[in-house]
Write a structure and sequence with these properties.
Helix content: under 10%
Order of helices and strands: HEEEEEEEEE
Low-confidence stretches: none
Number of strands: 9
Strand order of the largest sheet: 1-2-9-4-7
Mean pLDDT: 90
Largest sheet: 5 strands, antiparallel
Structural class: mainly beta
Length: 115
């Protein structure tokens, strides 16, 4: 099991204490995980690109600081502090950081199998 930053009994953290930008690439830290959601702090270096992909879970992106672009299908969404994006399960998406970019990624409970 991956180590997490917070425990289920912790109530708060300060972003300034946990955001660490890599010189290149991306850095992720699982803040908390329970039976329903995984809360991950993502920090991308300026110019970093996360290639298009899908996920079997619904996701949200809540931008903490920085700027970038999220491609959700064929829709371009400008990322900046305060922007919240919902990404449905199985939707193709990609991210490019225009500056150092930090966001909270929340993956919801995995969708039930439709079979």
């Amino acid at each position: 099991m991956t180590a997490t930053i917070m425990s289920l009994s912790a109530t708060a953290i300060r972003w300034a204490d946990v955001i660490e930008y890599p010189h290149t690439g991306a850095k992720s830290k699982i803040l908390l995980e329970d039976g329903n959601c995984r809360y991950t702090l993502m920090a991308l270096a300026v110019g970093m690109h996360i290639a298009g992909h899908t996920n079997p879970r619904n996701a949200t992106v809540n931008v903490i600081e920085g700027q970038g672009v999220l491609m959700l299908g064929d829709k371009e969404i400008i990322l900046e502090s305060g922007v919240f994006v919902f990404i449905p399960a199985a939707a193709r998406h990609a991210i490019k950081a225009a500056t150092n970019l930090a966001f909270l990624l929340i993956l919801s409970e995995q969708a039930a199998d439709s079979n």
